[in-house]
Design a protein that fits this description.
Helix content is 31%, strand content 17%. It has 565 residues and is an alpha/beta fold. It folds into three domains: 10-162, Rossmann fold (3-Layer(aba) Sandwich); 204-336, TPP-binding domain (Rossmann fold); 354-543, 3-Layer(aba) Sandwich (Rossmann fold). The strands form six sheets. The chain has a six-stranded parallel beta sheet with strand order 2-1-3-4-6-5, with helices on both faces. Helix 3 (61-73) runs parallel beside helix 5, helix 12 packs across helix 13 (379-387) and helix 12 packs parallel to helix 18 (522-529). The protein is globular. It starts with 9 loop residues before the first helix and ends in an 8-residue tail after the last helix.
Length: 565
């Protein structure tokens, strides 16, 4: 029996990790402090000071994970580095979101050498496979093992590095050390990837040709991109695009599709072409589950592209006819959408106080073309879905949300990361001129409170220009619209679901030295949004949960007779 290969020193593994991250296309590294990951942290610090990656430090590993997620969502590729023990477990929410959504961030955990496992050594647990079967964990003790690890661009990769003493080098690492040593390949993208690809046979791309016949709609879920819009326009079909689809532009995109699915128009649908991951509404879910509807699904990134029972997977669908489909089908949807939109706007304008729909609508109207909007899960993204008017082609706003698992945790950190990911990076990893227009975030008060450590930023940390709009109704409004919000459950609702907290958000912001403004009316909100101060700032829009269920019922009632006013 051969003796095991001796482990490389912590310093050598740290140097090898710096090179591996560079070859994997990593531009940003988020470090959470610890002793066991010290050699890795120090190597990355020197690399950043020497003009390599941009470095971020966070004291809370969960915040660090979601910061890396946000950075990777907007074009950078980020790695997050933790020490051993519970530090690694705190990355689990961000890792689950990234895996499900196909966001290829890199996770690096420091560990004890193998000989100390199972001996009761401090902060030692089984970190290999700690994130479960959803991704592969690589247990790394040698440079050779590390060099063999692939890093496909849309796959989450977990590197668990065994680091032995000494953990601190005898002398500081030179700042001019090359990021990628000579002789190394500059690409680690080999291996299976969950990215969407066209299947090929004998060098010929396989496409799915679609023809006229069944009454068809195109559903664009999260991260669908332009292909959904292009197909809908070519065929002349209604486009039911979620706010985070990247498809909600052009004449075929409908604002009120979610409500129209409950009308006669929805009943008449015979075929659906699905792009991305539709996760937002029960009407869409019910449509995809109908036995009388043919469902064609285009593969999406992530580990769970939508696969309704009886659906058919397709690749690169295209409209194969010379002319568009029957115009009467799309015209009926467009006319009903416009009429219903006007009715909703009139109803909301008649409300005596600020509503969550006002907050969502005003926030989106403040977003310029090519601007970024990060939306929290729960009510805000659904409010935006109803209030976002499709923009002209070529003026798309980038709207993103954590829809992989649709949790509310880590949303502020995700937004900060997403905004930072759109900044250019100068020498030394420092943020240079912002290369994109305005950054906004929209979330509820519980989502905001869930991620307060996102505001714990050291004086040297990169900070984006980011306006965070918080729709504060002192609790969980979304539950009032679900089954548990029915009058029959009123006695238990507030304690279990309404969860009023009474927190003073202004004081929380003051503790973190984050500018804060509280508004109570539409004009105040619009004025605040029109006057950004730069840096991270919070606009708290005061709304009420009282009457929310009734207001939503009134909105749904407007859709009972499509096309009428």
């Amino acid at each position: 029996m051969n003796a095991p290969t001796p482990a490389d020193s912590a310093a050598d593994l740290a140097d090898a990790l710096v090179a591996w991250l560079a070859r994997a296309g990593v531009t940003d590294v988020v470090v959470a402090p610890g002793s066991r990951n010290a050699p890795l942290s120090m190597a990355l610090w020197a690399t950043a000071r020497g003009g390599g990656v941009r470095l971020h430090t966070r004291i809370d590993e969960r915040t660090a994970g979601f910061l890396a997620l946000g950075l990777t969502k907007t074009g950078s590729r980020a790695a997050v580095l933790t020490t051993s023990g519970t530090a690694v477990a705190n990355l689990h929410p961000a890792v689950l979101e990234a895996v499900h959504a196909g966001v290829g961030m890199i996770v690096v955990s420091a560990d004890r050498p193998a000989r100390l496992r199972g001996t009761g050594a401090n902060q030692t647990t089984d970190q290999v496979g700690i994130f479960g079967p959803l991704l592969t964990s690589y247990d790394v003790a040698t440079i050779a093992t590390l060099d063999a690890v692939p890093a496909p661009p849309h796959d989450v990769v977990h590197l668990n590095l065994q680091l032995d003493a000494p953990l601190v080098p005898d002398a500081p690492r030179p700042l001019d050390t090359p990021l990628v040593p000579r002789g190394y390949s500059t690409n680690l993208s080999s291996g299976s990837s969950s990215a969407v690809r066209e299947e090929r046979a004998d060098g010929v791309s396989r496409r799915t040709d679609l023809h006229r016949g069944p009454r068809t709609v195109v559903v664009a879920g999260d991260d669908s991109g332009p292909p959904a819009r292009l197909l809908a326009e070519a065929a002349g079909w209604p486009l039911l695009a979620e706010p985070t689809s990247g498809s909600r532009t052009g004449e075929n995109a409908l604002r009120t599709y979610r409500l129209l699915l409950g009308t006669d128009l929805g009943d008449r649908i015979e075929r659906v072409v699905v792009f991305g991951r539709p996760t937002l509404s029960r009407p869409v879910t019910r449509l995809l589950e109908r036995p009388d509807v043919e469902v064609l699904v285009v593969a999406a990134r992530g580990i769970w592209p939508p696969k309704p029972a009886g659906s058919t997977p397709i690749t690169a669908p295209r409209w194969a006819e010379d002319d568009r489909d029957d115009d009467a089908w799309f015209d009926a949807w467009r006319e009903a959408d416009r009429a219903l939109g006007r009715q909703i706007d009139q109803l909301l304008a008649e409300q005596p106080t600020l509503t969550p729909y006002d907050v969502a609508g005003a926030t989106f109207r403040a977003l310029p073309a090519e601007g970024l909007l990060v939306v929290g899960a729960s009510s805000p993204v659904r409010d935006l879905d109803l209030m976002e008017r499709p923009a002209p082609v070529g003026t798309r706003r980038k709207v993103i949300a954590n829809r992989g698992l649709a949790g509310i945790d880590g949303t502020i950190s995700t937004a900060i990361g997403a905004a930072l990911g759109r900044q250019s990076v100068g020498r030394g990893g420092r943020s240079a001129t912002v290369s994109r227009p305005r950054n906004l975030a929209l979330m509820g008060d519980l989502t905001f409170l869930h991620d307060q450590t996102a505001f714990v930023l050291g004086p040297d940390e990169p900070r984006p220009d980011l306006t965070i709009v918080v729709a504060n109704d002192d609790g969980g409004a979304i539950f009032s619209m679900l089954e548990q919000g029915a009058p029959a459950h009123a006695e238990s609702f507030e304690r279990l679901f309404g969860t009023p907290h009474g927190m003073d958000l202004g004081s929380l912001c003051a503790a973190a030295r984050i500018p804060h403004l509280r508004v109570t009316s539409r004009p105040e909100l619009e004025q605040a949004l029109a006057s950004p101060n730069g840096g991270i700032e919070v606009i708290e829009a005061m709304i009420s949960r009282v009457g929310r269920r009734d207001l939503d019922a009134q909105i749904r009632a407007l859709a009972t007779t499509p096309g009428s006013e």
